[in-house]
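Page 37, continued from 36.
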């Protein structure tokens, strides 16, 4: 049986650029704060609606949270240089001029708002920019990663132990 999720009192997870939350199993997970720098509703070329509706409208280069606020941060920034009006830009955002400085500042902010010992999950698609170029933008050393090739069926799955359960177990 699945464990129950937290009731939302403790927001321990930050999705720093949530977009339309496609990779979430639960797009309203009560443990998470969903942040993006835009609100947007539109229709894609395939007719599907894209809705970007973050809890917090803010920039990952300057996050409105105190230091050490989260146990887990996920950072899935735009990874393509494409036209501003393109379908891809509407759905995923786009790399803008100076994107290296943007991502450098984004990494710094992610590590600032993480608790000591907290986890950063970084997602990158190296379709245009190699991962090594992006990892060079942070002095922090990555632990491990997985490359999901075009035909790979492997997924990254991250779990966080519920806080209430952890407290009960300590009693
Ligand atoms: C690749 S998409 C995220 C997709 C998302 N993980 C999902 O599952 O649907 C990248 C998102 O980053 C947002 N973004 C771009 N620059 C940002 C910034 N400086 N601060 C916060 N969000 C930003 C874009 O608006 C876009 O929605």
């Amino acid at each position: 049986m699945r464990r129950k999720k937290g009731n939302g009192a403790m927001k321990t997870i930050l999705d720093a650029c949530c977009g339309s939350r496609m990779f979430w199993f639960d797009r309203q997970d009560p443990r998470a704060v969903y942040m993006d720098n835009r609100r947007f509703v539109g229709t894609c070329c395939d007719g599907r609606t894209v809705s970007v509706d973050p809890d917090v409208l803010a920039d990952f280069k300057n996050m409105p949270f105190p230091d050490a606020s989260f146990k887990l941060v996920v950072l899935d920034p735009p990874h393509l240089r494409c036209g501003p009006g393109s379908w891809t830009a509407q759905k995923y955002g786009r790399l803008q001029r100076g994107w290296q400085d943007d991502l450098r500042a984004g990494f710094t902010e992610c590590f600032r708002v993480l608790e000591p010992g907290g986890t950063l999950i970084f997602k990158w698609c190296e379709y245009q920019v190699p991962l090594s170029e992006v990892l060079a933008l942070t002095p922090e050393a990555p632990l491990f990663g997985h490359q999901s090739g075009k035909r790979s069926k492997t997924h990254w799955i991250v779990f966080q132990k519920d806080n209430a359960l952890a407290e009960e177990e300590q009693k």
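Residues 13-170 form a domain with the Rossmann fold fold (CATH 3.40.50). Flag for discussion at group meeting. The CA atoms of residues 136 and 157 lie 25 Å apart.
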